[in-house]
Amino acid sequence: MKKIIGILVFTITFFNLYAAPEDLSKDDYKLIMSSQDMRKDKEEHLDINKATKQEMLSRGVASSYVNKILEYREITGGFEKIENLKDIKGIGQATYEKLKKFFKVVSEPKRKDLSINTADDLTLKYFGFSKKEIKELRKYLDKYDRISNNIELKKVIDKKKYEKLKDNINYGG
């Protein structure tokens, strides 16, 4: 009973201390409006090629995915399409469906070169190589030590993949 009375006294005191004075008219209040629609900002998709770590985190993207997205951008130069999210290890179809609600591709990526002779498996995957293609590439490199030109590369990867990557392939290393 003493607890209830104590809570009641506290509540009455609190409201009396912090309630607005009754002698103020509506004219005494200043209405401040933002020039931005905050709901619209929340609903807009982030540009996956430009969004900062903080922006992604503030929208509710898990830090583990944010780090993977940033790693992908660092290695490849950016996302050509939102579906590239599925190239990231740990992002399957279900996670992709959740993440695509946060992002869109607005700015063009500045694709980095792929050093075909020295790239690790993760880099190859990020550039769109399948496990099978990576295995074939590794087998070719084990046998011949390196790929020296586009003619040799065409023996290892299919024509469509070659056409997509040809301007970004580096044979050095």
Give the % helix.
Answer: 40-55%
Overall shape:
elongated
Tally of DSSP β-strands: 4
Largest sheet: 2 strands, parallel
The assigned structural class equals mainly alpha
Low-confidence stretches: 34-41
Q: Please report the distance between the alpha carbons of the first and last residues.
A: 81 Å
Outline of this structure?
The chain has 173 residues and is mainly alpha-helical. The chain contains 9 helices and 4 strands; from the N terminus they run ααβαααββααααβ. A two-stranded parallel ribbon has the order 1-2. A two-stranded parallel sheet has the order 3-4.
Describe this structure in words.
This protein has 173 residues and is mainly α. The chain has nine helices and four strands. Strands 1-2 form a two-stranded parallel sheet. The radius of gyration is 28 Å and the shape is elongated. It starts with a helix and ends with a strand. Mean pLDDT is 84; it is low at 34-41.
Produce the secondary structure layout.
Elements: H1 2-18, H2 38-43, E1 46-47, H3 53-58, H4 63-76, H5 93-99, E2 103-104, E3 114-115, H6 121-126, H7 131-144, H8 150-156, H9 159-165, E4 169-170
Parallel strand pairs: 1-2, 3-4
Question: What keywords describe this structure?
Answer:
two-stranded parallel sheet; 9 helices; two-stranded parallel ribbon; 173 residues; mainly alpha
